[in-house]
Design a protein that fits this description.
The structure holds 2 protein chains of 2 kinds. Chain A is of the alpha+beta class. Chain A has 2 domains: about 45 residues; about 210 residues, no CATH class. In chain A, about 30% of the residues lie in helices and about 25% in strands. Chain A has a 6-stranded antiparallel beta sheet with strand order 5-4-3-10-11-12, with helices on one face. A 5-stranded mixed beta sheet of chain A has the order 2-13-14-6-9, with helices on one face. The radius of gyration of chain A is 35 Å and the shape is rod-shaped. The relative contact order of chain A is 0.14. By secondary structure, chain B is an alpha/beta fold. Chain B is built from 10 helices and 7 strands. Chain B is elongated. Helices cover about 45% and strands about 15% of the residues of chain B. A 5-stranded mixed beta sheet of chain B has the order 3-4-6-7-5. The chains are: A alpha+beta, B alpha/beta. At the A-B interface, strand 1, strand 3, strand 4, strand 5 and strand 10 of A face strand 1, helix 6 and helix 7 of B.
């Protein structure tokens, strides 16, 4: 009798629990119905709980941009920085040269910055074009541009632009500008795309950058870039040239011709 | 009489609940305020993670660019003050560590909108336009000069090189720079000044901002050179600037006024800042950023 009593005391609650569990959790049970109702509300109102986790990969730039950058760095390191290199030219670029392809809006940008005894080249790309993708240090290099102007004692004018000196030295008379530099040293150069063209900003001055992939070294580790203008069709630097740089006709048409004629030389030709 | 009793029985628990919540809030605030640097860093990171995990987003069918999410956990971060001195290497190491920790505190930017308005701010009608938090102030007392150089300062490039070349102390096969750029969400670092002794610097987390694109970064980059008279690098991330010592005499004269103007553009809420970043700048420079300083919870 005692055993039966104990069994009833155990069995009845267990049966009750099972009934409640089926009522709550079983198909069509109260909890299932409540969960489904909740799901419907979340589905209808599109509620998300918890912020989505963001993951990012290693930042990259398009392959042709990388090839052009590395072509430029190789040209500088391998051909232009040797001791005997002076007033000689090199070209860089993707494929057949011609410099950088369009770098993309918020895409790739190249920052060339002078430091004591070296130049640092940072290539930004990745997320919104603001992440570092490549970083190069070139010892012995100092950046410059074929632009700007200064007083030149051998010419009686205060308004001599370096584009004029460059044009006269390489296009007219190679002895012309021996006493006055045809370049301007700069602290920082930034190259990127704005609107539908590549531009160059050197020490705060903005110009177009249709350089045709040309670089020139005046010697002593100076490596000069070619900011350009497209305001007229002539390469001749009349009226003392342009302060912002050469006309793009010079870099794209005249300089290749001069190279073919042997009036300007590639640095590698000195070997 | 019955109605009166009902109202009373409803009001008492309600008052008790509100009082309890206020008490918990005060305790949390006290804890954040009194937390030691290590504890404060952990608390900050955990609060950011909890905030992200508990964020509720409701699609209201409104504009796509309208953030309808609600994050009801407060950001329990506080600005930590440190003093740094030692050899150049020690100062660089310490600053790199602070840059890394600031990124760590914000969960490596794995979750967006870390510094969005809290519900309390919304309810109280407080505006929090800034999406910037000052993780550390770092007072540089002395930088011991080395025998081989006479430089009494640290070039921003030297700090950058350290971040770029040094392996992360806890995560295998990545550098400090990799950690910030791509370990979590996309990020970048901007070092805006050289490090000189007897100056106070700040290390801040700048959350990305794409809500008010009146200015883009390209616009800012274009004008930066004009604004600061020949040194265009101030307005950019992923690179360094070092204006203070590197600038020439004439530029240095212009630097003061122009740098303030440039910083207003750089930090301004009107600019479309497309990426989360850690910024190292002088404290006076960061003042133009309107960062949250002190306790983020207490504001």
């Amino acid at each position: 009798m005692v055993v039966l009593n104990k069994a009833i005391w155990w069995v009845i609650p267990i049966i009750a629990l099972i009934i409640i569990a089926i009522g709550l959790y079983g198909p069509g049970g109260l909890l299932t119905k409540a969960r489904e109702a909740g799901d419907d509300i979340i589905k209808d109102t599109d509620i998300n709980i918890g912020a989505n986790e963001i993951s990012s990969g290693t930042p990259t730039i398009p392959e042709e941009h990388s090839l052009a950058v590395n072509s430029m760095i190789n040209a500088i390191r391998d051909e232009m920085l040797k001791e005997d290199r002076k007033d000689c030219f090199e070209t860089y670029g993707y494929g057949d040269g011609n410099g950088f392809p369009l770098l993309g809006e918020d895409g790739t940008s190249i920052i060339i910055r002078a430091s004591p005894g070296e130049t640092r080249i940072r290539v930004l790309g990745g997320e919104s074009g603001q992440q570092l993708v490549e970083y190069h240090r070139i010892f012995g290099m100092q950046p410059c541009v074929i632009a700007g102007g200064r007083l030149c004692p051998i010419i009686s004018s205060n308004n001599i632009f370096n584009s004029f000196m460059f044009y006269n030295k390489f296009f007219v008379d190679s002895a012309f500008s021996n006493e006055c530099p045809y370049y301007q040293e700069v602290n920082e150069i930034r190259i990127y795309q704005d609107d539908d063209k590549n531009i160059i900003v050197y020490d705060g001055i903005e110009a177009e950058f249709e350089d045709g992939g040309w670089l020139v070294t005046p010697g002593n580790g100076l490596i000069c870039f070619f900011p350009t203008l497209d305001d007229d069709d002539y390469c001749e630097a009349d009226d003392f040239g342009n302060k912002e740089g050469l006309n793009e006709r010079c870099t794209k048409q005249e300089m290749p011709t001069l190279l073919d004629l042997g009036q300007i030389t590639r640095c590698r030709a000195n070997e | 009489m019955n109605k009166k009793a009902d109202g009373f029985s409803f009001l008492v628990p309600l008052i008790l609940i509100i009082a309890s919540l206020l008490l918990i809030g005060l305790l949390l605030n006290q804890f954040v305020t009194k937390a030691k640097p290590k504890e404060a860093e952990i608390l900050c990171r955990d609060s950011i993670a909890l905030r992200a995990a508990s964020k509720i987003e409701i699609d209201t069918g409104g504009h796509d660019d309208e953030d309808s999410g609600v994050a009801y956990v407060p950001v329990l971060c506080k600005t930590i003050d440190v003093e740094i001195e030692g050899t150049k290497e020690e100062v660089i190491e310490e600053l790199a560590n602070k840059i890394e920790r600031c990124w760590w505190m914000f969960n490596e930017a794995k979750f967006d909108t870390n510094l969005d308005q809290s519900v309390l701010s919304q309810i109280m009608g407080l505006q929090q336009n800034d999406k910037c938090f000052l993780c550390y102030t770092a007072a540089i007392n002395e930088i011991e000069e080395e025998e081989d150089t006479r430089k009494g300062y640290i070039d921003d490039d030297e700090l950058f090189d350290y971040l770029y070349e040094t392996k992360h102390p806890k995560i295998k096969d990545i550098t400090y720079f990799d950690y910030i750029q791509s370990y979590g969400g996309a990020g970048t670092v901007a070092i805006l000044e050289n490090i000189v002794p007897h100056t106070v610097y700040g290390v801040a987390f700048l959350a990305r901002n794409d809500n008010a694109a009146r200015w883009t970064w390209v616009d800012t980059l274009s004008t930066a050179g004009l604004l600061i008279g020949g040194t265009s690098c101030l307005i950019s991330a992923g690179i360094t600037c070092g204006l203070l010592v590197a600038a020439g005499g004439g530029e240095l004269l212009n630097h003061g006024a122009n740098a303030i103007e440039s910083r207003k553009n750089f930090y301004g809420s009107g600019i479309d800042r497309p990426i989360n970043m850690i910024v190292l700048d002088t404290l006076s420079g960061l003042n133009t950023a309107d960062c949250i300083v002190g306790d983020a919870a207490g504001e």
